[in-house]
Amino acid sequence: MLKNHLSTIIITAIFTYAAIIASIQFRQMHKPEKLYPSESLTRVGMLSDYFDGIKGTEGDTEVYIYDSGLPGGTAFIGGGVHPNEAAGYLAPVVIMENIKVIKGRVIIIPRLNNSAFTCSDPMEGFPTHYEIKTPGGSRKFRLGSRVTNPLHQWPDPLVFAQYPSGQQLSGFETRNINRTYPGRPNGNLSERVAYAIVELIKKENVNIAFDIHESSPEVPIVNVIVYHEDDEDLAMNAILGLEFAGLQFSPELSPKNFHGLSHREWGDYTDAIPFLMETSNPSMGRLRGKTNVELVLKGKSENYKKAKEFGALRIAYRDAEGEPMEHRVGRHITGFIELINAYNMNYPDKTIEVADLPAYEELMENGVGKYLHN
Amino acid sequence: MKKESLTIAILLAVIVSTSTIKAQMYEQPILISSAGQSADVKLVKMLAQRQQLEANTVLMAKASDLEGIKTLLIVPGFSSKGLGAAGVSQQEEYDRVEALIKVAKDLKIPIITVHIGGNVRRKGQSDAFNTLIADNSKGMIVVRQADEDGFFSDLAKKNNIPLTLVDKIVEVGEPMGNLFK
Fold it and tell me: Quick one: A176 and A305 in the same domain?
């Protein structure tokens, strides 16, 4: 009897083994990589501490709190709301692994959309990970999707009616956290995560908040700082400060009638002054061609070189250097520093002092890896 | 002798024309406005403040805002976010700027172009605004990156107006201040 079915049993066992291995590997994609916060870290919490409606869901995520113990203001840095924007995640990681907070507090969430780190955008051919060499060895980082994993939030409506504005957007935008602010406690997963983020900003009395992004080289909203009308001078002072540092950022005013975005709703629904920064990432553009890790890290594309020659680009795409990761991370970190400096000038009674962050020139010279720890 | 006289006459003509440009004094108060609603106008406002210029900034300036104004300084550059914030379409913005220019010219208020947005405020929807302003300006100050293809240099030549190119936005303040000294 056993002899008759031996081949069936063996084949079934092989397939079962292969399925188990494959499922373990697949599940590993959902496991966040280990991060190494600097010694200034005082506490790690969860986003669900601010709204328990996301507890136990894939939307819950770590909150890293750096408290100097000295009175001052509170800065919030949100990264990874769009995990396909590599520097939008890596810049906050470099900040959290190096920052020294001398005065006030800094709160960092590197994975604002934790769920979106567990999948890729379909039909885009994106690599799932990229590796960066560090002095202590190689570190692997997840490259995710722009929107919440459909396994965690499904189905999409045909038309997404943004809450509470009623603004209508494409159905899949219901999974884009940066279209769902201020969120709602009884909404879908993305709306509940957005609600939790707004609750954090309110409960922690955040004074200045950063949302870190990347965009395609050919779109107009690139290499910009988007600001809320409440503190225009602060944005302008920072942009001029960045000019002195040799980095050009264009100012963009947050439109009052474009709802759901951090630069609009964080400003409208909380007391924080919000800023959204965008760098230029050729791996995200429609003209990019072959999409691989090299393009994500080096940001160098023959197609973009040609596009520049044809006059199709509106950014200063640099033929020789491209838009490498260290340049993009450097722009974000310098932007953060200059905005904090401008904030400190305007609000001397609630200053935030930070140190030990790599300068743009250092990142360009040494690469990002030197500032990632093991 | 005839040749010498001719040379002297040419030299004098050159000196006169050069001094006309150099002595081109613009008067204050200034109205700073946008063409395309990019937030670059806010940076120019800040640079004007640093130069202690007597300037009023009105993003959506209309004919009535020109009352008492001696110089109109326009910052061209298209911004979808800016137009969204202002609640106007690109065509409505273009029509507004065109009407403003017409009134300024009727009132003999000189217009100066200040373009600081680099490549981001070039081509696409921006160049219609850039051309409209440059074609009606008495002079231009431009951050060099926007002139990589000679766009503003060509407009300056075509319209026979002076063009000052600077490398950085922060360098715009000085030539802008000098216009009024």
Answer: yes
Give me the residues of A, 247-266, that contact B with CB < 8 A.
248, 250-258
CB contact under 8 A, A240 and B170: yes
ipTM > 0.85?
Answer: no
CB A223 within 8 A of CB A315: yes
List chain A residues with CB under 8 Å of B47: 240
Q: Pairing state of beta strands A74-78 and A273-280? A: unpaired
Q: Contact A161/A148 with Cβ under 8 angstroms?
A: no
Determine whether domain B25-178 maps to CATH 3.40.50.
yes
Could you tell me if A8 lies within 8 Å of chain B, comparing CB atoms? Answer: no
Beta strand A105-109 with A74-78 is parallel
> Is residue A312 pLDDT above 80, yes or no?
no
Same domain? A5 vs A68: no
CB-based contact B120 A255, cutoff 8 Å: no
Locus of tokens 């040419």: B10
In total, how many domains does chain A have?
Answer: 2
Query: CA–CA separation, A56 vs A343, rounded Å?
Result: 36
For the stretch A126-156, pLDDT in tens is: 999 999 999 999 999 999 999 999 999 999 9
Same domain, A287 and A317: yes
Domain positions in chain B: 25-178
Residues of chain A in contact with residue B80, where contact means CB-CB under 8 angstroms, are 220-221
Looking at A12-16, B5-9, B27-31, which range is the least confident one? B5-9
Closest CA–CA distance from residue A314 to any residue of chain B (Å): 5
Dmax (CA) of chain A? 85
Give the closest-approach CA distance of B137 to chain A in angstroms.
24
Domain limits for position A126:
34-371
- Distance of alpha carbon A19 from the chain centroid: 33
Residues of B in contact with A241 (CB under 8 A): none
> Are A105 and A14 contained in the same domain?
no
A152 neighbors A146 (Cβ within 8 angstroms): no
What does DSSP assign to residue A52?
Answer: G
